[in-house]
Amino acid sequence: MDHEIMQTNEIRGSVEKLENVSVEMTEEKQILKERETRLLPVKNNFPYFISLSLGFGVIYTFCLYKNPAGITYPLFVAVACLCGIFACKKLEVPLKAGSIFLMITALLIGIGTCRTSEWFLVWFNGVALVLLGTVFGIHQFYDDRTWNIGKYFCSIIVYLCQAIGALPYPFSHFSAYTKQTKSKTMRKISLAVSGFLIAIPLLVVLVALLGAADAVFSKLIHHIVWELLKPATLFSLLFRTAFGTLSLYCLICGCCLHGLKQDVANRQKGEPIIAFVCMGTIGVVYLVFCGIQVIYLFLGKGSLPEGYTFSSYARQGFFQLLLVAFLNLIMVLCCLKYIRTHKALNMVLTLICGCTYIMLASAWYRMMLYVKEYRLTYLRISVLWFLAMLAVLMAGVTLIIWKNKFPLFSYCLVVVSVFYLALVWSKPGSIIAWDYVNHLDRDAVTDHDLTYLYYGLSADAASAIASLELTQSELNRISPGYDWNLAFERYYKYHARPAYKSLGIRNYNFSLAEARKLFPSMQE
Predict the structure, then answer these.
(1) What is residue 524's predicted lDDT score, i.e. its pLDDT?
(2) Shortest CA distance to 105 belongs to which of 71, 67, 135?
(3) Cα dihedral sign, 58-128-434-484
(4) Integer Cα distance of 250 and 171 in angstroms
(5) Which residues of the chain register pLDDT less than 50?
(6) DSSP class of 101
């Protein structure tokens, strides 16, 4: 009897497992079916979207192959914007006002890229454009008006992962399309291949004759054959084109999948009294600290600890203040997201924001003291830029404390975009060089000064260096037997990367061109 009961239980367990597996398979099939349904607008218009993606891939390769900061960079950005517009139009998704701002910002970043030779800034420009393109896709296909900052950051990551997961779709859509139009398509392809094969022997003869007839044409053919037709070069060009094509197609599929959750969950479940006591205690400490900043630092009154002067006191603790101000921003945002709204808590959070402004002012004052004594550097410009941007961002955070429906993410996006554009277009290397030169005594220039100006900065500093108008005899006096102009020429070409040793139509860069104009020895 016990044996029969055990067998019955085993049978029941097996049946339940089979039912669970069947349910899971049904759910997976339903999910796949929903995905296929959502991708039907792309699948049914495969020739249009693959042509659009292929055009994007070709332009991407033409503009950016071994050319990260040439004049074709804004052309690539403009084509990317047009591809987004055409894709949305084909999918019958109207262009939103916020998307126009994103495209204008992207174009200005693209133009700013070919105006500088700061390679770290060029790299960040690429990252910024990827983020703007991602936000463009999300903003177009989702109602993001109520989304907060955390929701948007998570959505960006999920959307990019979905785009990567959509990699099989271009191939499956191509397979389905070829099956539908197999006879016509294959016939056209075979005819095109036949025509190309017939043209090859004719081209060999004709190109040889034309090359012998014209030296310029001969040089062009020589460049194409020995540079562009190398196996490594061909592979790189084809890989870049394929990467650009698949990237745009997958991003479009990621938009159509609608895999992001539209609604924002209400997480304001925490007790306000806990947050009030916690933040209130921190606020009391901040009030004492900010009072000391006003009395000792800004007003210069009161007695300092033994061994401190006001200058040494002011230069202490800058990075600690910057970190505390950033943590304040995070704490306020967390309270707004996870704690239930309460008037008393809002007052304490407003107090925290006010104290943060005093801390930012203190940090700014301390950094300006550093700059006054040690001059500007890339790090100090970046820090001052971040402080100014953080102060404007805190204004939006303060406003959302009392106005819950304030679009904080849109506000932050505009602020960060404007500040980043200001950084890109200001060319930090040029600012640093001019600040250094303006505080330099021309008659007391040392070997150390020339080393910093010639080797420590990019070609953006060329105009500041040229303003010194040092003659060859003066350079020989500063560094006997050392040719600074030749050294700068060599360093310039190394720093500018091999692709920019000669500037042409495709890789023309305004900063590098100005440096060559000011230093004629750099001309090829």
Answers:
(1) 44
(2) 135
(3) negative
(4) 11
(5) 21, 23, 310, 522-524
(6) H
- In the chain, the amino acid numbered 35 is R
Q: First vs last Cα of the chain: how many Å apart?
A: 99
Give the torsion through C-alpha atoms of 106, 169, 174, 36, to 10 deg. -110
- With tokens 């500063």, the residue in question is 478
Taking only Cα atoms into account, the Rg of the chain, rounded to an integer number of angstroms, comes to: 31
Neighbours of 405 (CB within 10 A): 8
Residues 230, 236: Cα–Cα separation, whole Å: 10
Write down the pLDDT at residue 523: 47
pLDDT for position 119: 84
Distance of alpha carbon 271 from alpha carbon 344, whole angstroms: 12
Q: Tell me the pLDDT tens digit for each residue of 408-420.
A: 889 999 999 999 9
**DSSP E strand stretches across 328-419:** none
> For residues 27 and 218, is the Cβ–Cβ distance under 8 A?
no
> What is the reported pLDDT for 329?
87
Best CA proximity match to 168, nearest among 258, 55, 250: 250
Predicted local distance difference test score (pLDDT) of residue 28: 63
SS3 content of the chain, % helix, strand, coil (to 5): 80, 0, 20
Record the tokens describing residue 95, joined without a space: 């262009």
**Could you identify the residue written with the tokens 């969950």?**
265
The closest alpha carbon to 92, from 54, 44, 56, 135, belongs to 44
- Amino acid type, 187: R
What is the Cα–Cα distance from 358 to 285, expressed in whole angstroms? 13
Question: Dihedrals φ, ψ of 345, to 5°?
Answer: -65, -40
Per-residue tokens: 373: 């004594």
Q: Which of 226, 237, 253 is nearest to 58 (CA)?
A: 237
pLDDT digits (tens, 9 = 90+) for 126-163: 999 999 999 999 999 988 888 888 888 888 999 999 99
